[in-house]
Amino acid sequence: MHNAHFFLYLAVTAGITYLVRMVPLVLVKRKIRNRFLLSFLHYIPYAVLSVMTVPAIFYATESHWSAAAGLLAALVAAYFERSLLFVAASACGAVFVVEVLLRFLG
């Protein structure tokens, strides 16, 4: 990639990021009191994080089966309100076990 293209892409990204953060501050002058809108804005970060993370899970391993096992292990551990470290370790462990089994059986 040429430096000119890189700096153009960087400027466009910076401009869009700035606009996304600046426009609500300029357009909304007073405190938001609408319960629906507040609830919607509260859940936006979780929705964006989920949309970015879940597809990446299925392409981070060699097999979709091991990715599904890791996702399932993480969901089960999170459901039982385990720590973040435990959730991540259980997902990694499940992926490792399934990958080893798939190599052994295949």
Summarize the entry for a quick read:
With 106 residues, the protein is mainly alpha-helical. The protein has helices spanning 3-27, 35-59, 64-79, 84-105.
Mean pLDDT: 91
Number of helices: 4
SS strand fraction: under 5%
- What is the N-to-C order of secondary-structure elements (H for helix, E for strand)? HHHH
Q: Give the N-terminus to C-terminus distance in angstroms.
A: 40 Å
Task: Please describe the biggest sheet, giving its number of strands, its sense, and whether it closes into a barrel.
Answer: none
Overall geometric form = flat
DSSP summary, beta strand count? 0
Q: What oligomeric assembly is this protein in?
A: single chain
Structural class: mainly alpha
Q: Unreliable stretches, pLDDT < 50, 5 or more residues?
A: none
**Overall radius of gyration:** 21 Å
In helices, the fraction of residues equals over 70%
